[in-house]
Amino acid sequence: MLNKSSTGSQLCRLAVILTVAVLISLTVMFVWTSPQTFCLPQQLLIKPDSDRHHVEKNNSLDEAMVDKPILLLWVWPQDYRFDLNDCKTIYNIDGCHLTDDRSLYSNTDAVLIFHRAISQDLSTLPPSPRPPFQKWIWMNVESPTNTQQIPGIENLFNLTLSYREDSDIPVRLRLTSNKIPDEDFKIPKKERLICWVVSNNLKWTGVGMRNAYFHELSKHVYIHVYGKAYGSFLDYNDYFPTIASCKFYLAFENSIHKDYITEKLNGPLAVGTVPVVLGPPRKNYERFIPGDSFIHVDDFPDAKSLAEYLKRLDLDDEAYRRYFNWRRHFSARPHLILQNQEFVLAICTACDYVGRHKEYKEAHDIYEWFFN
Ligand SMILES: *[C@@H]1O[C@H](CO)[C@@H](O)[C@H](O)[C@H]1NC(C)=O
Ligand SMILES: *[C@@H]1O[C@H](CO)[C@@H](O)[C@H](O)[C@H]1NC(C)=O
Fold first, then answer.
1. pTM, two decimal places
2. What separation in Å is there between the alpha carbon of 159 and the centre of ligand 2?
């Protein structure tokens, strides 16, 4: 009896020890074999925690400067001023401390320098030597046709910002994909066949080609023309509604260069109108938007056949509707159209870049790159 019960309690103790041992070794093995699962949350936690702390304490200038790189807007491009908080409120870009306060120069991580504001004698550039950690950004939103070559700045910069995709900081409003197909899109009510909004008609800006094509096209089909250049100024509030009311919109660039595809294309895409583009080759457009979302003038041997095609589409709703198939999976959004907002996207894109990149960088022979 005594033996039996002692054997029983021994067995019982053994079972408990074994169970505990198995549990311990399982735990050890689990921790051992999945280090990432255990380390990562800790790393992830540190950041939001300090961020929160930061916001609670204060959002003032000095506070923000402690960890966000400073981006100094050396001059306001064309003196178009906007609220420096717009990057946050419009694009949710908050990676840098954006300022126009030159007294922060010696502490500035990056300086944004607008090409057209550089004087021939270079006296409008920031002072040299620059702090060793500081980067200068060459900002140019014009095409080569409308860019003046100021000698002496070819090797001064660290980063390039332009419409070119091979810039360090390419600037463009892009289509975004929707995981859930959008089935709700309705083509807006159309009241006109073809429209064109044109504000600049200055010869030296290279508009000769688009004017010639427009002139030829208008011989075969009526085009509603709006804008400063034609004396019928379109109010900002009417810009998108007017484009939406047309079946086709002439998105003609002022000069033809690789990647030089401007907001002229974005307007019709955003509001539900088919763009008819004149600019770089179709393949270049297809880098940014689906091939069945637009009509390229190069798709036709001449303006007359384009006009005939557009008139045919006017009578064929089914074929016209196919130009909007892309909308189920991608979205375009309206661009900023107020005059003083012309450079907001470029400046905010620079802010976003500066917030993410600390790498050493030199930009060499910027003209050779930009003009050739
Ligand atoms: C935060 O900074 C602002 C200046 O931007 C200042 O007026 C305010 O008193 C500060 N608040 C605290 C709690 O330090
Ligand atoms: C920026 O470029 C200049 C000139 O090319 C170079 O001297 C400087 O070291 C660069 N600085 C950084 C932070 O990349």
1. 0.78
2. 9
